[in-house]
Amino acid sequence: MLIFIAWRNLWRNRIRSILTISALAGGLALMIVYTTLIQGMSKQMINFATNISIGHLQIHRQSYINDQDIYATMPWDLLSYLEKKREYKFAPRLYGAGLGAAGKLSTGIMLKAIDPEKEQQVTTILNHVRMGKADLGQVQHADSSDPALVIYGVVIGAQLAKNLKISPGDELIIITQAVDGSIGNGLFRVSGILKPIEPNFDRTGVLMSIPAIQSLLYLENGFHELVVSINEKDDLIERKKSLQEDVSQWSKDNEITKYKNGDPIVVRSWRDIVSSIADMLDINESIIYVIGGIMIGLASLGMMNTMLMAIHERTHEFGILLSIGMGRFWLLFMVLLESFFLSLVSAIAGGLLGIGYSLYLERYGIDLSGSLPDGVDIGGILWEPVWLGSFTPDSVFIGIIIMISIAMLASLIPSWRTVRLKPAEITR
Amino acid sequence: MALLELKKVSKIYRQGDFEVHALKNLSLTVEQGEFVALVGPSGSGKTTLLNVIGGLDTPSQGTVHLNGDDLTQMDEKSLSHYRLMQLGFVFQAYNLVPVLSALENVELVMVLQGRLAVERRKRAMHFLEMVGLQDMINRRPSALSGGQQQRVAVARALAAGPRLVLADEPTANLDSDNATALLDIMHKLSHEEKTTFLFSTHDMRVMARAERIITLRDGSIESDETVQTHQ
User: Fold this and answer.
1) Of A135, A271, A266, A111, nearest to A200 (Cα)?
2) Taking residues A95-122, what's their average pLDDT?
């Protein structure tokens, strides 16, 4: 019967209860939506880090990490060994630097060589071509009928294309210093322009095939970087550890540690590589609950006010209940139950509202392409112009727990007043 | 043994620097089944005496025994249990829980007593019938007149099976017809259920139905008379 009384009391002053429920439900819905948006941003950034360019894990020689030493390559045997040992996807990369020229314009460029077939199993970089196509293969030189004169296709950054005033189909001359000390140069054809997915690459990047860079730099005995894709559900730290053990064992077996003064081969996760982003994402996770707690805490002040007024209005009634023999504990329980129902109804309303809007944001997102057509660069990571949410039921569950806890805490003060009531004074 | 026995009970309130002697060395016995009216001018100590007997207030001095149990030795929890199991209350007004129907209001005390649902329903129906409200059991207090609400309160007080019903000016807010009807019901139930009634009143109509009239003045008993009722 106490449950009946508490439930019916909730609706004694409908307008007041509805206003309180609206405030609490609004706070909870905001928290759920806020969590969805922040998690969406995090997911987008992690997706960028792992799927577009960086991959889940990367393997380098330590000296390459330290100062991009062009000689710090890893043998091709390592790739074969890892591909046999593990079922992960691997994509080798080589890097270089040089001067790019087109017509009378020239600028410093960064060369990034990939194996298109393997790369597409690990990252989606080739899917982000804005103009032209992602063709890194050889084509016949347009002005020559000599079948031996073939040139490689390259995909370049959008800003670089703008600076050199070139577009797909145009030629690009690359001049660089080969590993043997000679001047390497070559003629390439621009097959595609990449979207601005990475600021540095956008300004200076030239994407080419591995045979193309090998012929340019005479760098045939290895690769600089091995990008690894694991199952997203796998434990990143555990996979990194096991892969490091594989690499270390292989290095030992092949006496690779004796090479270049024991320069080790190192496995790093995307969280190590873009640690500032990883830290930011961790902070975001914490902030979600702080901000959410503040939102709900403010709404709970409304709850406290409602309960204070309700108890003040019903002092005589509580006196009667105490007089007829209701224990103070039961009276406190009844009032707390009333607060609980108020929180519960708010939780259901706020939960449904939050889930509904979160699912909408997950599907359609917030479209900022009008003002930010190419997205925003945050610490080297591109944030895409359509901000998609990422809804997780956990956010609702945790939100409801936080809301009910804060609301019940807020109602403790007014509820406690009932315990101190003196029936003789009230009923007089 | 008397049902109720008060010995040298005093109640002193402090109001600022002044002490107010609400009850002065008052002694009183009430036997089971009596229908007793407490009368006296405002401030004579009627409500204070009912509160002391009801365990809602503690006396400054003296002892209060109900059925042999000394209320002055009971702690808060025991007093609450005592009120629940031994007493019935009818107040001046706003007696009922507004969100419960007449039937649920009558059942409420029995719920707190831990009685079974079937027994609760049966007793509640019985007492509502006795006060003539069998057709209004599902009405909430706001849909009942003042007199009907007081009758529900009487039914609630009796349904709990108390030894003593305390009523503080139960007819104060009722018109003449309703007051008379309520008194008739209380008197009838007192006899049928052999329940002791002790009520404070200013109302001459109430006094006319009392079997014993105790007059208070300045916290002391001025007179205590057994009278012939005019039923």
Assistant:
1) A111
2) 93
| Residue matched to tokens 């089944």 | B33
Which of B47, B56, B94 lies nearest to residue A316, judging by beta carbons?
B94
- What integer is the mean pLDDT of A11-32? 86
Q: Is A200 on the interface with B (CB under 8 A)?
A: no
Distance of CA A178 to the CA centre of its chain: 38
Spatial separation of the C-alpha atoms in residues A74 and A78, rounded to whole Å: 7
Residue B191, min C-alpha distance to chain A (Å): 22
A324 contacts chain B (CB < 8 A): yes
> What confidence score (pLDDT) does residue A428 get?
59
DSSP state of A270: H
pLDDT tens digit string along B158-185? 888 888 999 888 888 777 777 787 888 8
Of A117, A107, A241, nearest in space to A174 by CA: A107
Query: Which pTM was predicted?
Result: 0.70
What is the Cα–Cα distance from A269 to A250, expressed in whole angstroms?
A: 19
Q: Lay out the sheet containing B18-30: strands in order across.
A: B18-30, B4-15, B61-66, B69-70
- ipTM of predicted assembly, 2 dp: 0.85
DSSP, collapsed to helix, strand or coil, labels residue B74 as: coil
Choose among A351, A363, A333: nearest CA to A401: A351
Q: Which domains does chain B have, with CATH numbers?
A: 4-98+144-226 (3.40.50.300)
Q: Which of A77-91, A405-419, B12-26 has the lowest average pLDDT?
A: A405-419
B95 and A320 within 8 Å at the Cβ level: the answer is yes
Which residue is it, tokens 């969406």?
A: A40
A214 vs A139: CA distance, rounded Å: 17
Edge to edge, the sheet with strand B212-217 lists: B87-90, B164-168, B196-201, B35-39, B212-217, B220-226
Q: Helix or strand or coil: residue A42?
A: helix
Give the number of other CB atoms < 10 A from CB of residue A23.
21
Q: What band does A319 get if pLDDT is binned at 50, 70 and 90? A: confident
Per-residue pLDDT of A168-200, as tens digits, reads: 999 999 999 888 888 888 899 999 999 887 778
* Type of residue at B114: G
Give yes or no for a contact between A332 and A419, defined as CB atoms under 8 angstroms apart.
yes
As a whole number, mean pLDDT of residues B48-60 equals 90
- Return the residue matching tokens 């007179």: B223
Query: Is A424 in contact with A72 (CB distance < 8 Å)?
Result: no
Candidates B20, B52, B99: best to mutate against A (most CBs of A within 10 A) is B99
Q: Does B14 touch chain A (CB under 8 A)?
A: no
Please return the burial class of A344, using the count of CB atoms within 10 Å of its CB with bins 0-12, 13-18 and 19+. Answer: middle
